[in-house]
TrEMBL record, chain A:
Entry's Gene Ontology cellular component terms: plasma membrane; transmembrane transporter complex
Membrane-topology annotation of the record: Multi-pass membrane protein
UniProt KW keywords: ATP-binding, Nucleotide-binding, Transport
Name of protein: Putative ABC transport system ATP-binding protein
Source species: Marinobacter persicus
TrEMBL record, chain B:
Span of domain ABC3 transporter permease C-terminal: 263-378, 708-806
Record carries keyword Transmembrane helix: yes
UniProt-listed InterPro entries: ABC3_permease_C, Membrane_comp_ABC_pdt
Entry keyword set: Cell membrane, Membrane, Transmembrane, Transmembrane helix
UniProt-recorded name of the protein: Putative ABC transport system permease protein
Domain of life of the source: Bacteria
Membrane topology note: Multi-pass membrane protein
Record field: transmembrane: 21-40, 257-276, 309-331, 351-371, 394-413, 419-444, 469-488, 707-726, 747-769, 789-808
Subcellular localization: Cell membrane
Length: 242, 829
């Protein structure tokens, strides 16, 4: 844990720094380049949307940024920690203490109740009184009445709200979301994204989000485009950012 | 971690079908192995004690020279915690109100019998029988019922034995040491050893055999014999249960069968656990990926699932024992019924060890590897399905698991032959499977989809080719194991039945003079009990081997019974039906030279064809070369001879008496009295009670075997269910899709059933072939029987497995058919 505290103490570095990132997978006959030459810096508290066509490499990039996968080349520094230098377990520890996730397909554990699903990361991060915090969060996302329900008893929008509560539960410094509204209808999607942005603002979390939803993308501070594995940032947006 | 652990509460586990299969497999394995081990140890106890009762003790020391053994030997035995007893056996003349009779006396000490019970009748005849663990009191005798008629005696009368008058207190129905010696053929009189001296029948020089009885713990007996052996003289003979007893070989086989059954249970359980836990592990991948994403580390995941395994182990063992103990109790009851006497339940905690080991090995060699690999599931899986596990990763696991389980079988059965035969059968099976699988898949690739049930079935097999092949292997293996057991059981039972048919000879007539052979034969012809095997018999000692005295020619430490006593020699022109020549040739028509020697004796003496044997018969000596070596069926209840001469051969001028055995039904026993009166010099040996005992024992062992077989078949069914349910979810999703896309229900049902039927048929054929191969080895190496093909027994198996699997397939389609496709797809999401 020493390493961790050391990393948090230092606030001078950006939240996320990516240089010369590339990712390839070996297919049966040749190799497929999914990402290449990605350079990126995201500061604390920023909210960033990654947009692009289906198959352009968004999910792959998000996985690499979040340390769920290791890149073929290049460096990802998450909150000052160089991800490819960490072991699998160290990355898990890093995620437990400072990273939150929201997925397109919710990814709640069907065997656990809403409350238990939110408590899980709290316990994994070793946070005290997990149940109290989990209740508060579920009330905050408007599900105070549904604590004991299992995911199967909840609608898609409700499930995603549980997932959002879970993502913020351990007080992450950075939140990754992969098409959080992709499986929801427009109105529900709007409600969910409102909630996400709101909580993000309240908690001062850095947000990195992949989305097809232009409105949602527009609500983020920066928009990044990805096409055929190459990341670009529109001039206007960059100026706005600086 | 509480919540993470909650993910896997016992109740939740039980809702998981893979976990249920693992648990059921474990429970059956533990139950089978524990029941078998407990029962085998009980059986051993019971049978050895009934076998011991053939000696009336665990061991006997015979002093054929009639001189008492040093008192110090008995003291030593008692100091080692052994019980001792004493008998004196001799023949003497007895008399009653009506005439005289040669009788064979057995005088027993107070301790007699140390094992087993004596059965008597206090009222003559047909009165109530009584069993007791004692001999007659001083002053009393118990006599063979035949003597009542021969001497015109009644219970309560006095009988003159030598110079002593003794009271006839009861009729002797059955003595525990009912084996027979040719030296004691006359009707039995049992008396107390303290009365012997007063009869005056035992004098210097009269032929008396002293027998000392010993009973106690195995180790104490072994230690004592170690101490005793160097002190023994040539006229002393130490006899144990296992040697030469009629049924000990049958018992050995039963024991081996039980071991085989247990080993198969171990294998089946391992397979079921392996299949189900692999399935479980696959289903857990998403959960693990999410837990990792949320920050749980590899170690935590490992711990989570290890705790799971431990819990399953505890549940499996507890459940298994809960099943095993009542089952064991029931079997002991059956045993008691078969033996018609209460059997003391002998619970041997050590017998539970193999069951525990089985659970442990199944869990850690078979369930653990796929679960251990869970910690390597990439976290990235939460964002996108990752390439699945390849078979290659599982290969080293398989190797380790195979080694572990065969080590277990070895440890358990202690038979390398068994392990070899099973392993050989499996390797053969897997080899054929690999080839067949490749060929089959190449063939199936050509079949393209269509609306026809057969085509859909073949396409289904091809589409799931990996699963199909895996299922085929497991089914074939399961069927092979079940078939092995069925085959061995069948040949075991049929061997016993041919060995001891209902009408096996149960009476011997001995000492028939040459002049009365004709009359004796026609007497029994008239009484509807024709004599079949009449043989001349000459008593002689083997004294020289190739001109050298036998005792020097044969190494000292080989103790050879045949040398210590007189041998029964015979001549015959035909080889008895149940004998078999293993070396040399049977006498041709007019040959007068040579002898034929029984194979065991030949082996112990190191005899080869052409060796010259010298026999001393009375004062004459005969020397003949060995011309053939043959096996005999000692347990056939027919007269058997170590050495046979040709007619007109070396024995032609020797004084012979005739011997025969024949079957006399219980209700015809009355004829024996008349026979004895008519032929007073012929000895009648009644062994019907011995045969009854043997048949009882065979019967009870058979029942045990059937029970074990049922257990194993249950285990096989669980394996099949485990395997079928492994692809359940995939198949249900496919079924739902086919229905969504407009496929008719009947088509779906027929193609699925066909698919499984084909799988079942193939697996059945493969399994049966491999089983025959394995049994071939087993039969030759373990059950020393002749291999017989039993196709008719196992032929239905492929059909049964085809039908069974088709039914399984139909059954697992149930939810697909009863629920709307929409609901189903959502549920399977
Ligand atoms: N492990 C892999 N093996 C082979 N191809 C892969 C692998 N991972 C990603 N790809 C390919 O890389 C490309 C980018 O995939 P990715 O999932 O990142 O796209 P995406 O932008 O998230 O698309 P969508 O918007 O449809 O989710 C796709 O063509 C995908 O098929
Ligand atoms: Mg994507």
């Amino acid at each position: 844990m020493n390493q961790m505290t050391d990393l948090t103490g230092n606030q001078s570095h950006p939240m996320l720094r990516v240089s010369d990132l590339g990712h390839r997978v070996n297919l049966e006959t040749d190799t497929l380049t999914i990402l290449q030459g990605v350079n990126l810096e995201i500061n604390r508290g920023e909210s960033v949307a990654i947009v692009g066509r289906s198959g352009s490499g968004k999910t792959t990039l998000l996985g690499l940024l979040a340390g769920l996968d290791t890149p073929s080349e290049g460096v990802v520094e998450l909150d000052g920690a160089q991800i490819s230098k960490l072991s699998e377990d160290e990355r898990a520890r890093l995620r437990a203490s400072r990273v939150g996730f929201v997925f397109q397909s919710f990814q709640l554990l069907p065997a656990l109740s809403a409350l238990e699903n939110v408590m899980l990361p709290l316990e994994l991060a070793g946070i005290e009184a997990p149940e109290k915090r989990a209740r508060e969060l579920l009330e905050r996302v408007g599900l105070g009445e549904r604590l004991g329900h299992t995911p199967r008893q909840l609608s898609g929008g409700e499930q995603q709200r549980v997932a959002i509560a879970r993502a913020f539960a351990s007080d992450p410094v950075i939140l990754f979301a992969d098409e959080p509204t992709g499986n929801l209808d427009n109105r529900t999607g709007k409600a969910v994204s409102d909630l996400l942005m709101e909580l993000n603002r309240e908690q001062g979390t850095t947000l990195v989000m992949v989305t097809h939803d232009e409105h949602l993308a527009a609500r983020c501070g920066r928009q990044l485009h990805i096409e055929a594995g190459i990341l670009t940032e529109p001039e206007a947006a960059r100026e706005q950012a600086s | 971690m509480q919540t993470a652990n909650k993910l896997m509460s016992v109740r939740r586990d039980l809702r998981e079908r893979d976990v249920r299969v693992v648990l059921v497999a474990l429970i059956i394995a533990v139950a089978t192995v524990a029941t078998i081990a407990l029962f085998a140890s009980q059986l051993q106890r019971t049978l050895v004690s009934s076998a011991s009762s053939f000696l009336a003790a665990d061991r006997q020391l015979e002093a054929e020279n009639g001189r008492p053994i040093p008192a110090e030997w008995l003291d030593e035995a008692r100091e080692r915690g052994l019980e001792t007893g004493r008998m004196v056996e001799f023949s003497t003349m007895i008399s009653g109100p009506e005439g005289f009779q040669m009788a064979s006396i057995k005088a027993v000490s107070n301790e007699y019998p140390l094992r087993g019970e004596v059965e008597i009748q206090r009222q003559s005849p047909g009165g109530e029988r009584e069993t007791l663990a004692a001999g007659p009191r001083p002053g009393q005798v118990w006599i063979n019922p035949r003597l009542l008629r021969l001497l015109d005696l009644d219970i309560g009368d006095t009988l003159q034995v030598g110079e002593r008058q003794l009271e006839v207190a009861a009729l002797l129905v059955r003595e525990p040491d009912g084996g027979f010696r040719l030296s004691s053929l006359a009707p039995r009189v049992m008396m107390h050893v303290d009365d012997v001296e007063s009869t005056g029948a035992v004098q210097e020089g009269s032929r008396v055999e002293l027998v000392y009885l010993f009973a106690g713990a195995q180790t104490a007996l072994d230690d004592y014999y170690q101490w005793l052996e160097p002190r023994l003289e040539p006229s002393h003979e130490w006899e144990g249960v296992r040697e030469g007893e009629t049924f000990s070989r049958s018992f050995d086989r039963a024991e081996r069968f039980l071991l085989l059954g247990g080993s198969l249970a171990v294998l089946l359980a391992a397979v079921a656990v392996a299949v189900a836990s692999r399935q479980y592990a696959l289903a857990q991948r998403d959960t693990v990926a999410l837990l990792k994403t949320l920050g749980l580390q590899g170690q935590g995941i490992g711990r989570l699932y290890l705790r799971r395994l431990a819990l399953w182990g505890v549940a499996g063992v507890a459940g298994g024992l809960l099943v095993a103990l009542p089952l064991f109790w029931l079997l002991v009851g059956v045993l008691g019924d078969a033996l018609e006497r209460p059997v003391e339940m002998h619970f041997d905690p050590a017998a539970l060890l193999p069951a525990l080991l089985t659970a442990l090995v199944s869990l850690f060699a078979f369930a653990y590897p796929p679960i251990r690999r869970l910690r390597h599931v990439p976290a990235m899986r939460v964002l996108r399905a990752q390439p699945g596990e390849t078979g290659r990763q599982a290969l080293p696991d398989l190797a380790i698991a195979l080694v572990a389980v065969f080590a277990l079988v070895w440890l358990y059965a202690g038979e390398l032959a068994l392990v070899g035969a099973l392993l050989g059968g499996l390797v053969l099976l897997l080899g054929i499977l690999a080839l067949l699988g490749l060929a089959l898949m190449a063939l199936l690739r050509r079949v393209r989809g269509g609306g026809n049930a057969w085509r859909l079935a073949f396409v289904g097999l091809y589409r799931h080719r990996q699963a199909s092949l895996a299922q085929l292997s497991v089914f074939a293996m399961t069927i092979m194991l079940a078939a092995i057991l069925i085959l061995v059981r069948t040949s075991l039972l049929s061997d016993w039945q041919t060995q001891l048919p209902e009408d096996a000879p149960n009476h011997f007539l001995i000492n028939i003079g040459p002049e009365s052979v004709e009359q004796v034969s026609s007497f029994w012809q008239e009484h509807n009990a024709p004599l079949e095997n009449l043989y001349p018999m000459v008593r002689g000692r083997l004294t020289e081997l190739n001109g050298e005295p036998v005792k020097e020619a044969v190494s000292k430490d080989e103790r050879i019974n045949a040398l210590n006593r007189e041998l029964n020699l015979t001549w015959m022109d035909q080889l008895p039906e149940d004998n078999e020549i293993v070396q040399g040739q049977w006498f041709s028509g007019d040959e007068t030279e040579g002898v034929s020697v029984e194979a065991d004796l030949a082996q112990r003496l190191g005899l080869e064809l052409g060796d010259r044997l010298t026999f001393t018969i009375g004062s004459a000596r005969v020397t003949e070369p060995v011309v053939s070596i043959r096996t005999v069926q000692w347990d056939s209840m027919k007269p058997n001879f170590y050495v046979a001469f040709p007619p007109d051969g070396g024995l032609r001028d020797m004084p012979a008496t005739w011997i025969t055995s024949f079957y006399l039904p219980g209700e015809a026993k009355g004829a024996l009295g008349e026979f004895s009166r008519q032929f007073p010099t012929v000895s009648v040996l009644e062994i019907d009670h011995i045969i009854e005992r043997i048949q009882e024992i065979v019967g009870q062992v058979t029942q045990a075997i059937e029970a074990i077989l049922a257990l194993i078949l249950a285990a096989a069914l669980v394996v099949m269910a485990a395997v079928v349910s492994a692809t359940l979810r995939d198949r249900q999703r496919e079924g739902a899709l086919i229905r969504t896309l407009g496929g008719r229900q009947s088509l779906l049902v027929r193609s699925t059933m066909l698919e499984f039927a084909v799988l079942g048929l193939l697996a059945g054929v493969l399994g049966v072939v491999a089983a025959e191969a394995a049994v071939y080895v087993l039969q030759a190496r373990m059950f020393d029987g002749n291999f017989r093909w039993h196709w008719q027994v196992v032929l239905p198996l492929p059909l049964i497995s085809a039908v069974l699997l088709a039914a399984f397939g139909r059954w697992q389609l149930r939810p697909v058919l009863s629920v709307s496709p929409m609901l189903l797809l959502r549920r399977l999401e």
